[in-house]
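DM from R.C. (forwarded with permission)

"hey, sorry to bug you on a friday — could you get me a structure for this? deadline for the figure draft is monday and I only need the backbone to look sensible"
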Amino acid sequence: MAALAGKYTISVDHLAQSQTLTSDAKTDVKAALGSDAASRTLKFVTADGKEKSISLTKDQTSLTALRDTINKSDVGSAPV
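My reply, with the result:
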């Protein structure tokens, strides 16, 4: 759907800030990552400023488990 011809005013309230996290390459996407802690918490801040958290068990720390857990949560992002 295209915008109708005309004059428009757009206001930007907040600009996103980039963040980059890096690690060594992972060859096993099902291997547990991080410490031996029984649980972990991921915290997200949504576009409207609300904080959302996802609690992870030790079994949810592989790359595939992280992806699946985030995609099944309600943190306000599109699945990857």
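R.C.: lifesaver. The chain has one helix and two strands.
me: no worries. The longest strand covers residues 39-45.
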